[in-house]
Write a structure and sequence with these properties.
The chain has 150 residues and is mainly α. The protein has one domain. The longest helix has 27 residues.
């Protein structure tokens, strides 16, 4: 019989994955159900993630803060241009903080590829121009996490 022990770094890694998954899956659920993402979820997720990263940084905290700054500038601008809704923008800012600047391009690439596929599917099968983008944000982010373990 064998046992598997988690080292402290693995515990921190799995708790980070759990937090990211909880926020993203919850946001996708709310967006699919009501086409809104509650502020308590996105802003609460941002606050909890910021505290988590301050206590247990995967990268230096400056990398995560830089991700937050870059994501905030880009996605707030896209919100003002009405490309994304407010909830989607806040969720993408949460993702930017969570992954940090070094991983932003890779994570965003997954999100936008899945978003494009979802847009095609939504357009063909639901005949709608708008769609709940939190599903793409969640799937893209989680696929990135999964692909980093393969």
């Amino acid at each position: 019989m064998w046992t598997y022990e988690l080292w402290p770094t693995q515990i921190f890694e799995w708790s980070w994955i759990s937090l990211v998954t909880l926020v993203l899956v919850s946001a996708a659920y709310f967006d699919l159900k009501s086409r809104t993402i509650p502020n308590k979820l996105s802003l609460g997720g941002l606050l909890i993630m910021a505290l988590y990263l301050w206590v247990f940084p995967a990268f230096p905290i400056t990398e995560h803060l830089l991700g937050l700054l870059i994501g905030s500038i880009i996605f707030y601008s896209l919100f003002l241009l009405k490309v994304f809704g407010g909830g989607d923008s806040k969720l993408l800012i949460f993702v930017s903080l969570s992954f940090g600047a070094p991983l932003l391009i890779s994570v965003w690439l997954w999100i936008f590829i899945i978003g494009g596929l979802q847009a095609l599917f939504w357009r063909i099968f639901f005949k709608q121009k708008s769609m709940p983008y939190a599903l793409s944000i969640a799937l893209g982010s989680l696929f990135y996490i999964l692909s980093s373990y393969l």
